[in-house]
Amino acid sequence: MTTVTIHGHAFATCTQRVMAVCNEIGLKYQIVTVDLKKGEQKTPEYLATKQPFGVIPVLVDEDGTKIYESRAICRYLVAKYGKDSGLLPSQSDVKAYGLFEQAASIEYSTFDPYAAPLTSELVFG
């Protein structure tokens, strides 16, 4: 069975988003903890090999493919491993796909800018 690697922090909502999708589609994963308080995500090695903007999570697929940005990771995982999961509408259903993209855009641009900093403050202090 396929196992993907997630570089992130298990308490971070962006990493939890990816973990939730993996769980929903039955995909095994391992977490490589990135110590945010120590600034591991800002080291030259991390910036050069994982994510050029110094944030989490980063997915490394078993074939070496690297994807970052949690929502992009989730869409990638569903497209590759969870096509029949029902988590994403088919692009051939233009109306359903458009409504999904609308809701995703609202979540990202309206809800997340307020919820993410609050959650981060409550979890990481």
UniProtKB/TrEMBL annotation:
Signal peptide range: none
Any GO MF annotation of the entry: glutathione binding
GO biological process terms on file: glutathione metabolic process
Major enzyme class: transferase
CDD domains, A to Z: GST_N_Phi
InterPro entries assigned to the protein according to its UniProt record, in alphabetical order: Glutathione_S-Trfase, Glutathione_S-Trfase_N, Thioredoxin-like_sf
GO cellular component: cytoplasm
Coiled-coil regions, chain positions: none
EC number: 2.5.1.18
Keywords of the record: Transferase
The GST N-terminal domain, residue ranges: 2-85
Official protein name in the record: glutathione transferase
Species annotation: Rhizoctonia solani
Upper lineage: Eukaryota, Fungi, Dikarya, Basidiomycota, Agaricomycotina
